Amino acid sequence: MSDDSSITLVTVGLLKKYVGDQERLGVPAQGRTVAEILAKLGIPSALVAIVMVEGRQVMKDYVPRAGDVVKLIPLMGGG
Q1: How many CB atoms lie within 10 A of CB 43?
Q2: DSSP string, 7-75
Q3: How much is the pTM?
Q4: How much is the pLDDT for 4?
Q5: What is the pLDDT of residue 8?
Q6: In the prediction, which pLDDT does 72 show?
């Protein structure tokens, strides 16, 4: 979807599996918070460590505007 009322969601790493292995997808903006968008797509909010919008970090209660590019960065494991 790429109409004037959508945002572009960019998923990184393991988060891609929740959106059919797509790295970028159009999502209707519709006044939803990032957390609400995650829930609607079935992406566990706890797995998203950082949300970036247009190059700046935002909280999950941020409401993206039409045309925004929202990048979701997962928690990293290691040891």
Answers
A1: 21
A2: EEEEE-GGGGGGGTT-SEEEEE-TT--HHHHHHHHT--GGGEEEEEETTEEE-TT--PPTT-EEEEEE-
A3: 0.87
A4: 65
A5: 97
A6: 98
Angle of CA points 30, 33, 38, to nearest 5°: 100
At residue 9, what is the residue type? L
What's the average pLDDT block by block, 10 residues per block, for the chain (79 residues)?
A: 77 94 91 96 96 96 96 81
Q: Rounded to an integer, what distance in angstroms lies between the CA atom of residue 21 and that of residue 40?
A: 17
DSSP 3: S
Q: Which CATH number, 3.50.50.60, 3.40.50.1100, 3.40.190.10, 3.10.20.30, labels domain 6-74?
A: 3.10.20.30
